[in-house]
Amino acid sequence: MRSLSLRPYVATDAASVLGLCLRLAANTQSSAAHRLREQGAQVVQIHQNANADIWVAEDCDTTALIGCIAVIGNSLDSLLVDPAVHRCGVGSALLLQACAECGSPLQVQVCSRDEAALKFYGKHGFHSVKTQSAPDNGAACVVLSQFQNSEQKPEKTQKEKMVDTATDGLFEGATHFLFSVLLGGD
User: Fold this and answer.
1) What is the number of alpha carbons within 13 Å of residue 124 lying toward its C-beta?
2) pLDDT (tens digit, 9 = 90+) per residue, 48-63?
3) What is the pLDDT of residues 16-29, one digit of tens each?
4) CA distances (Å), origin 169, targets 65, 110, 156, 175
5) What is the helix, strand, coil percentage profile of the chain, to 5?
């Protein structure tokens, strides 16, 4: 893990966040690059939202901004990490900071094709709660939620609900049969 410091975003970070998005866009295919540039502008606008929490990661040696995370309520809006420091713990540190500060389970929406993001969030305790279509590129989006304890579970799929209903019916039938036998009924 790199030597970094985390701190709340301040208005003077705007240019650095936009620069971070441009560096990310330079390493990405053209359709995603456009969204990354928009995302940088969005983070700067989110800062004005009273319900938003934004933290930045700075390299302790250079004081360069190397990451940023934006959360609105319990929804993770953006997690940006400089490509030069990918897989160095910056994203994990920012995510852990956001989780600690928010106090409630976070949710994030991820493209179903983004295996790296799905693996990253899974490593940090996020689980799929639903899938929805994305109109812009046709790829499905997965909504992931982080659970604070074992009692919070994702919503069951239709198939799981059908299995539960079937097993409940079987259990009730078996219970009725057992009591009939024990009580000498038919």
Assistant:
1) 23
2) 666 688 899 999 999 8
3) 888 887 887 777 66
4) 58, 37, 18, 10
5) 45, 25, 30
133 Cβ contact list (under 8 Å, min separation 6) = 140, 141
30 bridge partner residues: none
Q: What is the pTM of this model?
A: 0.69
CA–CA distance, 75 with 96 (Å, rounded to integer): 14
The residues near 86 (Cβ < 8 Å, ≥ 6 apart) are: none
Please check whether residue 58 is in contact with residue 9, taking contact to mean a CB–CB distance below 8 angstroms.
no
Q: Is 115 exposed, middle or buried (0-12, 13-18, 19+ CB in 10 A)?
A: exposed
* 144 sits in which H/E element: strand 140-146
Per the listing, tokens 């330079």 go with 26
Q: CA–CA separation, 35 vs 22, rounded Å?
A: 11
